Amino acid sequence: MSKRTIFIVVGSLLLIGAWWACHRGGSAPQSGQANGSERRGGAGTGPVPVVAGKVEQKDVPIYLEGLGTVQAFNTVTVHSRVDGELEKVLFKEGQDVKTGDLLAQIDPRPFQEALDQAVGKKGQDAAQLANAQATLARNTDLLKKQVIDQQDFDTSKAQSGQFAAAVQADQAAIEGAQTQLDYTQIKSPIDGRTGLRLVDVGNIVHAADPGGIVVITQLKPISVVFTVPEQDLQKLLNQGGETSGLPVAALDRGNTAPLGEGTLAVVDNEIDQTTGTVKLKATFPNEDLKLWPGKFVNARLVLKTQKNATLVPASVVQRGPQGTYAYVIKPDKTVAMQTVKVGPTEDGLTVIESGLTPGQQVVVDGQYKLQPGSHVELTSATGQPQKPTGAPNGKSPRGKSRKPAKS
């Protein structure tokens, strides 16, 4: 191969390399610029689709929430107060009973016999008392006439007093026997609902039996015991605590279905040091019996109502290195980053203490594509562009009537 041929080949390779480097270097920066602009949502890439909402102003309740347990307002284990055979059971399991309703009957015959004996003993002593009193009256006249001496009179007076005391003791025995007889009728001590029967007819029951005959629970009203963090205790006391009748709502475990509304009844007198919480008890009328003893519920206490609070959907508030902020949509459809101070969040709405004013339009969804100055396109939650509001009376923007669609 000659020197001239080698020179031509090398020159051709150099020209090809220069051409390739020139075209590659010119296109790469343009691609990088486009990708960076697209990531920032800047000019040249079109508006960024976002979901918008408005800052509202209205009264909002401030809640204290805690997990609670439903407890019966009163619970009584019904026992027999005398020993004997259970002769009758007069209630049905799960029956609603009133105070004084007859629940069961103990065999009354032994107690009736004791009462009859006490009555007979009183009659005997009462007859002797009458005789002693008559003797005393005669001896009183005879003493005045000095027919009997003082000793005989004192003896008759002592006998009269002795029989009077015996009659009083007999009366007490009669009342005691009557009480024992009355205890053979077992009655409900409270209004409530009976549980499962704990003993059957024919069994011998004793006053010392641990199990009793039946358990009665009072369901109307009913109580809910729940806990709140100790740091909320002072807020609660500042609102009057249990003396101010603060409203409490009970909701199911999913925190969706309401089960009842009541009022705060008791704030416990100490803080649980192991959990850092304080117990509260609320009372509910429970007329519809949605609350049942032992049920777990979510309790929501209305601490106060904040008047004219500034509210936005909770998703509006973003958090960054400089704190909390929100994107405000300007009239020219660009966004600005606005620092905000937030309050409590309730039911998906966040209280804004400073930074936003009612009526402002803010970004609810789509913030991750934005930076200050980005152009936005307002869309619905489904991603469809929001339609402009049409003219009244069924007119289109050009003033022409729209024809109804055909079915």
Provide structural commentary.
The chain has about 400 residues and is of the alpha+beta class. It folds into 4 domains: about 50-55 and about 315-380, conserved putative lor/sdh protein from methanococcus maripaludis s2 fold (Beta Barrel), CATH 2.40.420; about 65-75 and about 220-305, Elongation Factor Tu (Ef-tu), domain 3, CATH 2.40.30.170; about 80-105 and about 185-215, RNA polymerase II/Efflux pump adaptor protein, barrel-sandwich hybrid domain (OB fold (Dihydrolipoamide Acetyltransferase, E2P)), CATH 2.40.50; about 110-185, Helix Hairpins (Orthogonal Bundle), CATH 1.10.287. Helices cover about 30% and strands about 35% of the residues. It has helices at about 5-40, 110-145, 150-180, 235-240, and strands at about 50-55, 55-70, 75-80, 85-90, 95, 100-105, 185, 190-195, 205, 215, 220-230, 245-250, 260-270, 275-285, 295-315, 320, 325-330, 335-340, 340-345, 350-355, 360-365, 375-380. The protein has a 6-stranded antiparallel beta barrel with strand order 2-11-14-13-12-15. It has a 4-stranded antiparallel β-sheet with strand order 3-10-8-5, with no helix packed on it. The radius of gyration is 46 Å and the shape is elongated. Mean pLDDT is about 85; it is low at about 25-45 and about 390-405.
Summarize the structure.
The protein has 407 residues and is an alpha+beta fold.
| CATH fold topology of the largest domain | Elongation Factor Tu (Ef-tu), domain 3
Counted by DSSP, the helix tally is: 4
Number of distinct beta strands: 22
**What is the overall shape?**
elongated
Q: Describe the largest sheet.
A: 6 strands, antiparallel, barrel
Low-confidence stretches: 25-44, 388-407
- Bin the strand percentage: 35-45%
| Terminal-residue CA separation | 86 Å
Could you estimate the helical fraction of the residues in percent?
Answer: 25-40%
Q: What is the CA-based Rg, rounded?
A: 46 Å
Average predicted confidence as pLDDT: 85
Number of domains: 4
Largest beta sheet: what is the strand line-up?
2-11-14-13-12-15
For this structure, what is the CATH homologous superfamily of the largest domain? Efflux pump adaptor protein, beta barrel domain
Structural class: alpha+beta
CATH class division of the largest domain = Mainly Beta
CATH architecture designation of the largest domain? Beta Barrel
Order of helices and strands: HEEEEEEHHEEEEEHEEEEEEEEEEE
